[in-house]
Structures are given as structure tokens and as C-alpha cells.
């Protein structure tokens, strides 16, 4: 109905075509129980429908931006509608022009109808089709024959078997011929759409024509069942259905003017048509009564004919498959020629030309299996992200290429240089002398400090020596630990792996492994720390805080597990769980406490989440599923997450556009806090606790900062929340300075949701 109403808006006369169909159906249905003294009334809507269809075809042929083939098609259908109108008039004369109503179809009427069919067939066959091979057309011809044989048998069996009684009423076999011809048109249209396409003619328009012709054929085939009602005719419904389909198809064509033509899409559905036809014929053969030998013979001959056609089609398919196999064999030789090139591409980095991770692992595995002493160094360019941001990715790529060249030149034949991804490289030195290895790695650092690169590059290098039983993964892990230790010491240096570092790394790895299972085991939970108004201490909201209760270690501090989650990428899964759990809790409070529910529920969002593609859509999905009121949510982000323009800042702006409030957490600790407010849209500033209860709070400078922050937040129409309030004196000082929101241990530690609910219930009970 939506599609029909859309068409009606483009052609205000479509409803008249629909009314013609309904009028014909109602007239015919009532006529089965009531004798019409003036049957001509039932024929009156038919010419109107034909005129409307012709008008729609003419307008479609005159539409702008259609190709010549499409324009020609609609012109032909316009001519067909004119001929159709003549046939309808002649049919009316035959039906009601005599002394008594009849279903007679005269020669003149038949001539008009056959002219309509001829013009329509010509229009269809002249449509341009997609390019097909000779074998394709042969299969198409066989499929068409199969469908035509099956359709003809079914039309004969269910409609035309009683042709003698029908001919005695209609006066000729013309009506039978018309029905069969319309069936042929329907079949050809369907096959045309399914196989040969229709050039730039709108596919939906052709489908509407196909459906209309099929339905019109079905209704027209009911004529033998109306021989006892001479004042009725199946044309009273079949003609309006056909004209309405033409009108809708032409309107659909006009709606698609200017749209690019649909590309040909291969489909396997046409291939099942022959087998469905055979199955239907077999079912009809089995259901035909054996008392009628002539009919049984016709069914058997038709079934045999269909079977032979399907066999011929299968022979063609087998021949095509054989040709296809020959073509495949020819391509195998070409594929072998490319194998060497593909192998090189699969084992080397496309940007720098050095080995990639695949070749590195293979090379290390061979050396370790052979028992060769191996030294592995992992190298990471310091501040490479800053280089990319300041000078552009093209400069960054040139730097990577230059680093690769220098590494290759310095290492030479002594080892293998590989790029692991990003700005991380690995060096494999099969050198038994450790001092010789130190000398090579020292030269590597000297080469990277040279100034001839696009920008000066320094690197952190971590190195380790193989041990019995090592694997490539273990060697790289130890080198990675040493490399991060070099970065922690300031970078631009070489650091060798130490067993004590291994213990620390192993401990961190074990904790990371446990963290991977924490959500599934139900070890993660949320606490909620109240945010209060000053000076009244009335509740103003809560902040959701993630906690981890380890089965052996007890409560693990967020300062310990959050960095592990950031490094491993688990922060994405944890952040998603926090967001959904907090939203579900907020929605539950809304349902239970209404306006007394926490006015704000703050939820922390990590930098990794903000930079993740699809994060905004994920937030919208969670809001939809939980049903939480977005006006009660406050998403907290850190300054470092949006310090540079990029996906994270774009995500924040889109979240604001979607009516979600944003808070800037730990404000004042970053390097560009004030300038950040110029391009990052926020609603709330959460002043870091170091200015409230830390060492900065006790200094004169810290006090001045706290007092002046509230001034410019008011001018910028931002809310300010003071974090880490621990004493009543601090709360009084903040209130005097103008702060109206605060949170900290003075008011409440983070508590479970049940305690928040108990407080809310207590407030309600006092009313």
C-alpha cells in the first residue's frame, strides 16, 4: 500500500484505475446472484481505464532523461492502448449490441485484440538486452519453450478443456486464442525480466507489467466458468487489472527519471524454472483421471516433451562446464607465473620493502630449530604520532622508508630487518658475539640520529638473546618488554632485557589474562559516587565507577587494571559493558523513582572508545535498547582523548549533536586545557582533585586557579564540578568561590546501586 500511495502521488489519476478494478470485481460478484437488465453498465469503466493507461504511457514516453529504447517502448504501449480501446468498444458491441446479452467475441473484436498483442510483443522484443553468449541464448530459448509448454498445458487443462460448450456461447474460438496469447505475453515478459533484462527501462515497471499480465490472464481464463451468465464477462475484471498495471508501470517509470540504470545482477533463480515445470507437469499427470485416455495422452506427451527439453538443456550446461574447465586449466599456468611475485608480496612490507611479520617468524623459527644463537632487537620510533600529526602521513611514510634503508644498510648481511607494523621494526642478528651485536645496535642508533631523513628520528630499542626452548613469540615478547623500558627511561637509547623485567611483565600478563575473563566470570561491577549541590549537599547526580574483584587478589585498583586494558584493547569491551550497565541502571531508577531519580548519571568513556569507528552508533543502540532518558546522561572524557583533531573529537561533536551532554574530566592537568575549550564542545568541567585536596590546593597559585576557574566557566555557560572534596573546610571554600557542584569522600565514597536506591527510598518516605 505504501508503494501504491507513492505512485498515486505522482499520478493523481491512479485511484480511478483502482476504482475501475473494484467496480468490475463487485459488478461480476453481484452478477453471479443477480440478473442485470442493463449489462452495459458493467462495461462503462473499461474504456476509462484504457484511456488512463494510454495517457500514463504517453507521459512516460515524453519524460526527460530517458534513452531512446525506453522512450520507444512507452510509445508502442501508447499505440497498444489505443488499439485496446478499439477492442473494448468492439467487445461491448458484441456483448450487448444484440437482442440478448452474450459472451460472443466477433472477428472485428478479435482483430483489435490480436493487434494489441502484436504491438505489445513487438515492444517487448525490441527492448535492448544485456550482452549474452550464444550458449546463454540457447539455454534461454530452451527455458522459454519449457515454460510455454507447461503454461499452455495448464491453461488448457484448467480453462479450455470445455471449449465446445464455451464456443457455443461465444460463437467462435477467438476468445480462447486471446487467452492463450495473453498467457504467452505474460510468460515472455517474466522471462524477459529474469533472463535478458530490459536495458534502461525501469525494472520495477517491467515487473508490474508482468504481474498485471499474469493476473489478467488468470482472470480471463475464468470465462468458461461464466457461460451460464451471458450478461457477465471475465473481461469486466481482466481488462481493468491489465490497464491498472500499465498505468502503475508507466508511473513507476516516470518516478525513476534521472536515476542511474540498474546494473545486471546474475541470479540462479532462473535455473530452477525447467525443473519446477517438469515437477508441476508430473504432478498434473498423476492427478489427471485415467478415465479420459485423450487427456492422459496429452499429459504424457507434454511431460515427455518437457523432459527432452530439460535433457537438452543439461547437455548444453555440461558442454559449457567442459569449456570452463579448459579455461581454468589455461589460467593455472598464468597463476604459476605470478606465484613468485605473490610470495614476495606476502612476505615483505609493501611500503618499505623489508621483511614483514610472516617472514620474520619463519626466519626466527628456522634459526631456533637449528640451535643458532640469535639476538632480537625491537625498535620503535619515538613520537612518531607527533611527526605524523605535524608533518602529515606522507612525511611519516618517507620517514619509515628512510629508517628501513638505514637499518638495512647498517645491519647488512649480518641479520634480517623486518617491519612489524606502524613505526615498529625488528632486527634479527644471528651473531654469536654479544659485543659485536652491541656494536651493530649502537651504529643503528647513530644512523637513525642523522639529519638527512625527512625529519630527525630517534628510537627506543629493546634487545634480548635467545635461550634454549625459545619460540619466536617469546623472543619478540622479551624484546618488546625491553623496548618499553627504554621508552620509560626517556627513549633514544638501547635497553637489554633483564630477568627482573620478565617477572614484572609476566605478572602484568597474568593479570591481563585474568582481566580477559573478568567480565564473563562476573567479577566486574559498578559503584556510584554521589555528586552533590553546594552548600546544601543535596544529591545532584552520581558517577558510575568500574571496579574489579579478583577471586584471589581481592579488589584490584583501577589504576592497575585500566592501563592493562588500554594496552590490550580490552578497554573497548569493558567500556561497552560499563556504558550499557550504567544506562540500564539509570533507566531502572527512572522507572522506579521518576523525577526523584538521579538527575545526572556520569559515565566515563576512554580515548580508545571515542576513536573507534562506529562508537556513536553503538551509543545510540545502547540508548535504544535500555530506554534511558539521554538528558540524564553525562559522558565523561579526558583532555588527552581530544587534544588532537581526529576521529575522537569528531565523535564528541556528533554525540553533542545527538543531544548528549559531555564532561571534560580531570580538567586542569593537561597541557592545553584552556585552548581545548575553543574547539571541543563540552557542557561540564570536572576540576581535578589536585586543585581541591592535593598539594596544589594548599598553594596560593592553586587557590587562585580554583577561584578563577569558576569565573570563566560561568561566562562560557558551563557547569563546574569540584572533584576530590575530603573536608568540610574545602567544601566551604569551594562554595564561597562560587562552585555549586562537588563530589568526594566528604559526601560519600563510591557505593553500590542498592545504597543509592535506599537513599532515594528514604527521601520518598519522608514526604
Automatic annotation (TrEMBL):
Keywords: Membrane, Transmembrane, Transmembrane helix. InterPro entries: Cyclic-di-GMP_PDE-like, EAL_dom, EAL_sf, GGDEF_dom, Nucleotide_cyclase, Rev_trsase/Diguanyl_cyclase. The chain crosses the membrane at residues 12-34, 40-61, 73-93, 105-125, 137-159, 171-193, 205-225. One of its GO terms (molecular function) is cyclic-guanylate-specific phosphodiesterase activity. Residues 372-499 form the GGDEF domain. Residues 508-764 form the EAL domain. The keyword Membrane applies. It comes from the Bacteria. Pfam families: EAL, GGDEF. CDD domains: EAL, GGDEF. PANTHER family: CYCLIC DI-GMP PHOSPHODIESTERASE PDEF, SIGNALING PROTEIN YKOW. This is Diguanylate cyclase (GGDEF)-like protein. The lineage of its organism: Bacteria, Bacillati, Actinomycetota, Actinomycetes, Micromonosporales.
Amino acid at each position: 500500500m505504501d508503494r501504491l500511495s507513492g505512485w498515486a502521488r505522482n499520478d493523481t489519476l491512479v485511484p480511478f484505475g483502482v476504482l475501475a478494478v473494484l467496480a468490475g470485481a463487485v459488478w461480476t460478484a453481484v452478477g453471479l446472484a443477480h440478473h442485470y437488465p442493463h449489462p452495459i453498465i458493467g462495461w462503462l469503466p473499461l474504456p476509462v481505464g484504457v484511456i488512463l493507461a494510454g495517457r500514463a504511457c504517453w507521459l512516460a514516453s515524453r519524460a526527460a532523461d530517458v534513452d531512446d529504447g525506453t522512450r520507444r517502448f512507452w510509445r508502442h504501449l501508447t499505440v497498444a492502448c489505443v488499439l485496446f480501446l478499439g477492442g473494448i468498444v468492439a467487445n461491448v458491441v458484441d456483448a450487448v449490441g444484440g437482442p440478448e446479452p452474450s459472451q460472443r467475441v466477433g472477428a472485428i473484436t478479435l482483430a483489435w485484440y490480436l493487434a494489441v498483442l502484436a504491438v505489445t510483443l513487438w515492444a517487448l522484443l525490441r527492448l535492448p538486452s544485456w550482452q549474452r553468449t550464444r550458449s546463454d541464448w540457447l539455454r534461454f530459448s530452451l527455458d522459454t519453450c519449457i515454460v510455454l509448454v507447461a503454461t499452455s498445458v495448464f491453461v488448457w487443462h484448467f480453462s479450455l478443456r470445455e471449449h465446445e460448450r464455451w464456443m457455443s456461447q461465444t460463437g467462435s474460438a477467438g476468445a480462447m486464442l486471446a487467452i492463450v496469447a495473453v498467457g504467452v505475453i505474460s510468460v515472455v515478459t517474466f522471462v524477459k525480466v529474469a533472463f535478458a533484462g530490459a536495458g534502461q527501462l525501469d525494472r520495477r515497471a517491467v515487473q508490474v507489467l508482468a504481474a498485471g499480465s499474469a493476473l489478467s490472464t488468470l482472470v480471463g481464463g475464468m470465462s468458461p466458468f461464466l457461460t451460464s451468465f451471458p450478461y457477465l464477462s471475465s473481461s469486466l475484471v481482466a481488462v481493468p487489472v491489465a490497464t491498472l498495471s500499465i498505468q502503475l508501470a508507466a508511473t513507476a517509470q516516470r518516478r525513476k527519471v534521472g536515476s542511474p540504470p540498474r546494473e545486471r545482477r546474475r541470479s540462479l533463480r532462473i535455473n530452477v524454472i525447467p525443473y519446477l515445470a517438469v515437477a508441476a507437469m508430473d504432478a498434473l499427470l498423476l492427478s489427471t483421471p485415467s478415465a479420459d485416455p485423450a487427456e492422459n495422452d496429452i499429459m504424457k506427451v507434454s511431460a515427455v516433451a518437457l523432459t527432452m527439453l530439460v535433457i537438452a538443456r543439461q547437455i548444453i550446461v555440461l558442454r559449457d562446464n567442459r569449456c570452463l574447465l579448459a579455461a581454468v586449466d589455461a589460467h593455472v599456468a598464468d597463476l604459476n607465473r605470478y606465484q613468485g611475485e605473490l610470495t614476495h608480496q606476502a612476505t615483505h612490507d609493501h611500503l618499505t620493502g623489508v621483511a614483514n611479520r610472516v617472514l620474520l617468524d619463519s626466519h626466527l623459527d628456522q634459526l631456533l630449530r637449528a640451535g643458532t644463537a640469535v639476538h632480537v632487537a625491537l625498535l620503535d620510533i619515538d613520537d612518531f604520532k607527533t611527526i605524523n600529526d605535524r608533518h602529515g602521513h606522507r612525511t611519516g611514510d618517507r620517514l619509515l622508508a628512510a629508517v628501513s634503508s638505514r637499518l638495512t644498510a647498517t645491519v647488512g648481511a649480518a641479520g634480517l630487518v623486518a617491519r612489524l607494523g606502524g613505526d615498529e621494526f625488528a632486527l634479527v642478528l644471528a651473531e654469536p658475539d654479544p659485543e659485536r651485536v652491541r656494536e651493530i645496535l649502537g651504529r643503528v642508533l647513530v644512523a637513525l640520529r642523522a639529519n638527512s631523513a625527512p625529519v630527525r628520528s630517534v628510537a627506543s630499542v629493546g634487545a634480548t638473546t635467545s635461550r634454549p626452548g625459545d619460540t619466536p613469540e617469546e623472543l619478540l615478547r622479551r624484546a618488546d618488554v625491553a623496548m618499553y623500558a627504554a621508552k620509560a627511561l626517556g627513549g633514544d637509547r638501547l635497553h637489554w632485557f633483564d630477568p627482573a623485567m620478565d617477572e614484572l611483565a609476566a605478572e602484568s600478563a597474568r593479570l591481563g589474562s585474568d582481566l580477559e575473563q573478568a567480565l564473563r566470570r562476573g567479577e566486574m561491577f559498578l559503584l556510584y559516587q554521589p555528586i552533590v549541590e553546594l552548600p546544601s549537599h543535596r544529591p545532584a547526580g552520581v558517577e558510575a565507577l568500574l571496579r574489579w574483584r579478583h577471586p584471589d587478589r581481592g579488589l584490584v585498583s583501577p589504576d592497575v587494571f585500566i592501563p592493562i586494558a588500554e594496552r590490550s584493547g580490552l578497554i573497548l569491551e569493558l567500556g561497552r559493558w560499563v556504558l550499557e550497565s550504567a544506562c540500564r541502571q539509570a533507566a531502572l531508577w527512572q522507572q522506579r523513582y521518576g523525577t526523584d531519580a538521579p538527575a545526572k548519571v556520569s559515565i566515563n568513556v576512554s580515548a580508545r572508545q571515542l576513536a573507534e569507528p562506529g562508537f556513536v552508533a553503538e551509543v545510540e543502540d545502547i540508548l535504544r535498547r535500555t530506554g534511558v532518558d539521554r538528558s540524564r546522561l553525562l559522558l565523561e572524557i579526558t583532555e588527552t582523548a581530544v587534544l588532537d583533531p581526529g576521529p575522537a573529537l569528531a565523535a564528541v561533536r556528533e554525540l553533542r549533536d545527538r543531544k548528549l551532554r559531555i564532561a571534560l574530566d580531570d580538567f586542569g592537568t593537561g597541557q592545553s586545557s584552556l585552548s581545548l575549550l575553543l574547539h571541543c564542545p563540552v557542557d561540564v568541567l570536572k576540576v581535578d582533585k589536585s586543585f581541591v585536596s592535593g598539594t596544589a590546593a594548599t598553594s596560593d597559585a592553586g587557590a587562585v586557579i580554583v577561584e578563577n576557574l569558576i569565573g570563566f566557566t560561568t561566562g562560557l555557560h558551563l557547569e563546574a564540578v569540584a572533584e576530590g572534596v575530603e573536608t568540610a573546610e574545602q567544601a566551604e571554600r569551594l562554595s564561597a568561590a562560587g562552585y555549586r557542584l562537588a563530589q568526594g569522600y566528604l559526601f560519600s565514597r563510591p557505593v553500590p546501586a542498592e545504597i543509592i536506591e535506599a537513599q532515594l527510598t528514604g527521601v520518598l518516605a519522608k514526604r
